[in-house]
Write a sequence for this structure.
């Protein structure tokens, strides 16, 4: 078992995660008497939790095999129309900008697909 073995995964929608700080690793031996490592980070999001979790949230499943050539062409044209003005001639110099433009790209893909 190496130090980078992934035992647990945390998923967050890219629509709400604007940025994340570099994680810090803390040896847990003096804290929990465990041989594990504690990872801490800060997430910057664009929402305030309601406090009540809705476990019945619906999700959309896209069936790519059923897409027609015309559907793909329409989707492609709409993506180009919406993203070209936003991302035209943009240069990304750091991870904060990369995360920002990734979120713009992803939210537009989802919006057009719906």
């Amino acid at each position: 078992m190496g130090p980078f073995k992934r035992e647990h995964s945390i998923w967050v929608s890219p629509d709400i995660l604007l940025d994340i700080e570099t994680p810090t690793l803390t040896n847990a031996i003096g804290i929990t008497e465990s041989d594990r490592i504690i990872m801490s980070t800060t997430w910057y999001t664009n929402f305030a939790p309601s406090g009540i979790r809705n476990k019945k949230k619906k999700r959309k499943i896209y069936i790519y095999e059923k897409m027609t050539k015309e559907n793909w062409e329409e989707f492609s044209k709409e993506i180009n129309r919406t993203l070209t003005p936003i991302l035209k001639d943009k240069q990304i110099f750091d991870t904060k900008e990369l995360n920002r433009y990734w979120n713009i790209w992803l939210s537009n893909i989802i919006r057009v697909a719906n």
